[in-house]
Design goal:
Blueprint lengths: L1 H13 L8 E4 L5 E4 L5 E3 L12 E4 L5 E4 L5 E4 L15 E8 L3 H20 L9 H13 L5 E5 L3 E8 L1 H16 L3 H7 L1
Antiparallel strand pairs: 1-2, 2-3, 4-5, 5-6, 7-9, 8-9
Helix pairs in contact: 2-3, 3-4
Length: about 190
Amino acid sequence: MRWLILIAGILFVGTPRVLAGDMVLTLDDGREAILHEDNTWGFAQFSISDGSEEDLYITLDNGKTICLKTDYTWNYSSGRPQQKKSVKELPSVYANGSATRPTLDQAVQTAVSQAIERLTTKLLPYAKKSKLTSKYLSACIKNEIGENGAETTYKPGWTAQAKITLTNVQVKNIIDCVATQIETPAEGQEAAKK
């Protein structure tokens, strides 16, 4: 009788338990995840993490999306997040600007501003969306190209032309910069909340 109790105890402790309120989900890779009522989760079978995991998003048959977070908590989500594009998927872009002003310095500044505005328009579909996306794109482009990032040429009569060319690596840096700006709350907003 002792052996029967011992074997039953080992089986009870050694196997994952699914309680009445728990849900079991089968992931795309075939693993099963158990979602507990207290919004924690775990795998049905023991697995070793290599540390490179990201949050998992599972769309249920009823259309709802569940996010399994890497801290082993879960919640319903409004949908899958926008996937970041790799450098190879982003384009290399260029834009030109041209302006005639009373002084050469004003003409150069206006031409560069026009080129940055055109680049902002071209990169808008790739950037994370918010009310301030265009503003952040312009600032991140200026940051990426630096002080002397535009090729400028001059014509008689205070006319300047500016050309800005961005590689796909620079475009990725700009898109990441915009995402960081959107995700990081402004200092003024934090102070207002306190």
